[in-house]
TrEMBL record:
Biochemical pathway: Purine metabolism; IMP biosynthesis via de novo pathway; formate from 10-formyl-5,6,7,8-tetrahydrofolate: step 1/1
UniProt function note: Catalyzes the hydrolysis of 10-formyltetrahydrofolate (formyl-FH4) to formate and tetrahydrofolate (FH4).
InterPro entries documented for this protein: ACT-like_dom_sf, ACT_dom, Formyl-FH4-Hydrolase_C, Formyl_transf_N, Formyl_transf_N_sf, PurU, PurU_ACT
All residue ranges annotated as the ACT domain in the record: 5-87
Species of provenance: Parapusillimonas granuli
Similarity section: Belongs to the PurU family.
GO molecular function: formyltetrahydrofolate deformylase activity
PANTHER family noted in UniProt: FORMYLTETRAHYDROFOLATE DEFORMYLASE, FORMYLTETRAHYDROFOLATE DEFORMYLASE 2, MITOCHONDRIAL
EC number(s) given by UniProt: 3.5.1.10
Name assigned to this protein: Formyltetrahydrofolate deformylase
Record lineage: Bacteria, Pseudomonadati, Pseudomonadota, Betaproteobacteria, Burkholderiales
Record has Isomerase as a keyword: no
Active-site residues from the entry: 226
Alphabetical keyword list: Hydrolase, One-carbon metabolism, Purine biosynthesis
A Pfam entry, by short name: Formyl_trans_N
């Protein structure tokens, strides 16, 4: 199927959709789905169009053809082949529920992705990786070896042509340099309803505070810990009888669902950055 996705953001003004649809008409293109949002506060416009063409064209040729429209409106525009599977690198430490969930969704075809590899600073999930026939990279790290270990991660991203790095309960803080190099292509699952309970032990913090609702947050990774643009959140009710371990158990299911949704929306090119926030065309 010759279908593609156009995403763009630009200063808001009249004529944007008219010019985009005119460009599509010139290619004899047919719109399958279109969603837009005008942010009155930032005066920026956001658009996602899923369209079909009568015959195949390369993404490069399409982006070249669209360039005059993009320049006229000062757009940040990208075009993607809707049939291409994004390549993921999954990072995990000791908690494997999110990793397990993503591996099964990819294996069963629920999630249209290719898993290029799994990286861990421990060996707990080497056998799970082998069961799915996915390369496992054991990259231990200490504060002293963090630069070299992070270079190994970057080398894998380059070598395996990775589109998205997923921190599936990877419990090491990435350096500013690595975050900069992975801007907009690294998603983390934080095991709390941000901005509450940042850090490594949110369920213990939640228990101590006596909350009645816990949650999980998927966000793009930035140098500022747990501060990246939020993609998705969800919650679950809890009560006084539940220990930190009980909260961890209940929360793990929420984490897996929230991360899977965020990864799906990213690889379907449904997320656009709007400063420190996101626009998500579900
Ligand atoms: N630059 C960033 N790196 C990471 C982020 C992020 O938002 N920006 N998120 C974390 C995940 N995370 C919470 O979701 C988290 C992970 C680890 C820690 C932490 O304090 N780690 C300690 C070591 C803990 C351990 O070894 O168990 C540390 O790194 O010194 C806080 C929050 C992933 N990375």
């Amino acid at each position: 199927m010759n279908d593609y996705i156009l995403t763009l953001s630009c200063p808001d003004r009249t004529g944007i959709v008219h010019n985009v649809s005119g460009w599509l008409l010139g290619l004899d293109g047919n719109i399958i789905d279109a969603q837009q949002f005008g942010d009155l506060e930032t005066e920026r416009f956001f658009l996602r169009v899923h369209f079909m063409l009568p015959s195949a064209m390369s993404v490069e040729a399409l982006e070249h053809s669209f360039a005059p429209v993009a320049q006229r409106f000062g757009m940040q525009a990208r075009i993607y082949d809707a049939q291409r599977k994004s390549r993921l690198l999954l990072l995990v430490s000791r908690q494997g529920h999110c990793l397990n969930d993503l591996l099964f969704r990819a294996h069963s075809g629920q999630l249209p992705v290719a898993i290029a590899g799994i990286v861990s600073n421990h060996t707990d999930y080497a056998r799970m990786a082998a069961a799915y026939r996915i390369p496992f990279h054991h990259l231990p790290v200490t504060p002293e070896t963090r630069p070299q270990q992070e270079q190994q991660i970057l080398d894998l991203v380059e070598k395996e042509n990775v589109d998205l790095v997923v921190l599936a309960r990877y419990m090491q803080i990435l350096s500013d340099d690595l975050c900069r190099k992975l801007t907009g292509r690294a998603i983390n699952i934080h095991h709390s309803f941000l901005p509450s309970f940042k850090g490594a032990r949110p369920y213990h913090q939640a228990h101590a505070r006596g909350v009645k609702i816990i949650g999980a947050t998927a966000h793009y990774v930035t140098a500022d810990l747990d501060e990246g643009p939020i993609i998705e959140q969800d919650i679950e009710r809890v009560d006084h009888s539940m220990s930190p371990q009980d909260l961890t158990q209940v929360g793990s299911d929420v984490e897996s669902l929230v991360l899977a949704r965020a990864v799906r929306w990213h690889v379907e090119h449904r997320i656009l950055l709007n400063g420190q926030r996101t626009v998500v065309f579900k």
